[in-house]
TrEMBL record:
UniProt organism field: Polymorphospora rubra
InterPro entries xrefs: P-loop_NTPase, TOPRIM_OLD
Protein's name in the database: OLD protein-like TOPRIM domain-containing protein
Higher taxonomy: Bacteria, Bacillati, Actinomycetota, Actinomycetes, Micromonosporales
Domain OLD protein-like TOPRIM per the UniProt entry, residue ranges: 344-402
Pfam families named in the record: OLD-like_TOPRIM
SUPFAM superfamilies, per database record: P-loop containing nucleoside triphosphate hydrolases
Length: 531
């Protein structure tokens, strides 16, 4: 069965069903017509015989019999009432202050409908509806006679009253009173208190839903059953519920936000629950599987839905990529919102580049829309790069120039295999065959060494001593070995050595010009002119 909710411009949304319907639109939906409209349509179609139907159901049956003989087609049409009644219940909890009363009404109205369908109570209600309808018909007959007496030019006056308690639940206004104080409406209690009360209402709703799960499926009202087989099938179904949360953690402190997350997890465990959450909260976004997130964004003045998950149907691939993202330290909020993802070789660059970028460009990487992640010479990182590129994320790698030869995963063929353009997406540090550490001057290295790693022989570090290491095949390894062996406080690894150096920089001019140019290019990649 295909069902949709259709909302024409400036009109209320309607629930539609794709089904076989009469070609003539006037013959499609009799449930929504008043008795007077039904009679008028029957007259128009020439169906009003000598004995007119005595009630609304009779008019509907008359028109339905005619419609069944008319030409039909497959088309979207308003869904019958019985289809709408069988759809899952909808519970909406908003984030605004005024929604507390609405939240109370929402859950109590849901309980009202459950109680309404209980067999014993439902029989009594139907009997009461029938009795009230009968009494009103007598009143209506007197009214019609009075109108005919006063208006002799009329040939016929008819009033057909109907009574239904199905939508009779009106309101549930919440009143508050503190110790020794007078009662006040919840909207006068302050935003923070109102949100805490909303949270309490949602928690109670969660307990009610759990109780319903234990109790089993709700009974199906007799008037919903077309036949015994259908009734038995429906009896086996759980009372499905769709819960909508709109900004659920607005105005809540961190501890209450955690309660909201726990509440959401408890509700989602229930087998009959499906949930949608509209939120701008990074805490909520980062707390769920990336495959469960639908990202709404504006493109060319139109709202576009985006899912950052593999649509090929390979769940194992989705899970593997999610694990890679987690291992790389990339949260869901980063994956959804950052404009450029830059892969660097490892922890040395991951620690140093953010400090150098901020000093050179006058802003942090996040402000430029750039997310940094360490490849660690891991082919899985390039798989993740391809995944990002396939989802229209801009990806680049910033690597030492010597890694192009030493690390095969950064070679031309490997990058092309994973969807990256070596000439556009690969930025190399250190010319053609050097590395990040080589870009800093001898004077800069000597200055940080004298400040952090005093020599055991008491002699100062000099620029000439640093320069002598540049002739070695791997400058960074030779420099690290010198600092470790000549000082009791020497760095234990390259990440610490480089971080201590760049942490001493105070002015943009201290950032190597080559890095400065790379940073400018990264900003351009993250903020292209076509955005």
């Amino acid at each position: 069965m295909r069902v949709r909710r259709f909302a024409p411009q400036e009109q209320a949304p309607t629930l539609q069903l794709f089904r076989n319907v009469p070609v003539d639109p006037e013959l499609r939906d009799f449930d929504s017509l008043k008795v007077s409209d039904l009679k008028a349509l029957a007259t128009k179609l020439g169906l009003k015989g000598e004995k007119a139907p005595s009630n609304r159901a009779g008019w509907v049956d008359l028109l339905q019999a005619f419609a069944e003989q008319a030409s039909h087609m497959d088309d979207w049409a308003d869904a019958p009432a019985k289809v709408q009644q069988r759809l899952p219940r909808l519970l909406r909890f908003g984030g605004e202050q005024a929604s507390v009363d609405a939240a109370v009404k929402t859950i109590l109205n849901s309980r009202y409908k459950v109680h309404f369908e209980e067999p014993e109570l439902h029989v009594r209600i139907r009997a009461l509806e029938s009795e009230l309808s009968s009494r009103l018909k007598d009143d209506a007959a007197d009214l019609c006679k009075h109108i005919m007496d006063r208006c002799p030019d009329l040939t016929e006056v008819e009033v057909l009253p109907e009574v239904s308690f199905s939508g009779a639940f009106k309101s549930a206004r919440l009143q508050l009173a503190r110790t020794g104080g007078e009662a006040v409406a919840v909207d006068a209690a302050g935003a923070g208190r109102a949100r805490r009360i909303s949270l309490a209402v949602w928690e109670w709703a969660s307990e009610v839903l759990q109780t319903e799960t234990v109790a089993g499926p709700a009974p199906i009202a007799p008037y919903l059953n077309d036949d015994a087989g259908e009734a038995n099938a429906l009896q086996d179904a759980q009372p499905d519920v769709v819960i909508l949360y709109d900004e659920p953690d607005t105005h809540l402190d961190y501890s209450h936000q955690r309660r909201v997350m726990q509440l959401i997890r408890e509700q989602c465990v229930l087998p009959q629950i499906r949930m949608m959450i509209a939120t701008h909260s990074m805490n909520l976004i980062d707390g769920v599987d990336i495959a469960s997130i639908v990202h709404l964004t504006l493109r060319n003045d139109r709202t576009v839905m985006e899912r950052l998950a593999d649509e090929s149907g390979h769940e194992e691939t989705d899970r593997h990529l999610a694990h890679i993202a987690t291992a790389l330290g990339l949260r869901n909020s980063v994956l959804l919102h950052e404009r450029l993802f830059v892969g660097v070789e490892g922890p040395t660059e991951q620690q140093a580049i953010p400090l150098l970028f901020r000093l050179a460009m006058g802003m942090p990487l996040q402000s430029a829309g750039i997310a940094l992640w360490a490849c660690n010479n891991n082919e899985g990182a390039l798989m993740f790069a391809r995944f990002l590129a396939n989802h229209n994320r801009r990806v680049a790698v910033l690597i030492d120039a010597d890694s192009r030869k030493n690390q095969k995963i950064f070679g031309d063929d490997k990058l092309k295999k994973y969807g990256l353009n070596p000439d556009r997406d690969r930025l190399m540090i250190g010319g053609e065959d050097r590395e990040l550490e080589y870009l800093f001057t001898d004077e800069q290295w000597a200055a940080v060494a004298n400040a952090k790693w005093l020599r055991t022989d008491g002699e100062p570090w000099t620029a000439d001593l640093i320069a002598s290491k540049r002739s070695d095949k791997k400058f960074s390894e030779a420099l690290l070995q010198e600092f470790k062996t000549s000082s009791l406080d020497g760095p234990q690894g390259k990440p610490e050595m480089v971080y201590e150096l760049v942490a001493t920089f105070q002015a943009p001019e201290e950032v190597p010009e080559e890095l400065h140019q790379h940073f400018i290019k990264l900003v351009d990649l993250a903020n292209p002119a076509d955005l």
